[in-house]
Specification:
With 101 residues, the protein is mainly α. InterPro entries: MSMEG_1276-like_NTP-PPase_dom (IPR038735).
Length: 101
């Protein structure tokens, strides 16, 4: 079976334990960032389909990996999120902007 997608680091080991042989390569920086973007889309779509909190955890894992690619730590990312929430608010009120007249 062909996959051609970025997978978690231990997936090849798990495949081998199941008696199969994975064919893999390690992405260079450009491919890695591109594939992380694809993985983010995949995980968001899976969350939309299932609503499962585990899929949100997968989204977060990809976000942290993307942040790491740009030398941003999870603490820095959280600080940026909090600053933006303080300045512009969050999404908890459910406000939908229909138009500006």
């Amino acid at each position: 079976m062909n996959y051609d997608k970025l997978v978690r680091d231990r997936i090849p080991e798990i495949i081998e334990k199941n008696g199969d042989t994975p064919k893999t390569h390690v992405a260079d920086d450009a491919e890695y960032e591109r594939r992380l973007g694809e993985k983010l889309d995949e995980e968001v779509a899976e969350f939309h389909e299932s609503g499962d909190p585990e899929e949100l955890a997968d989204v977060l894992e990809v976000v942290y990996a993307l942040a790491d690619c740009t030398d941003v730590t999870s603490d820095q990312l959280e600080r940026l999120r909090a600053e933006k929430a303080d300045e512009r608010g969050g999404f908890s009120d459910g406000i939908v902007l229909e138009r500006v007249e």
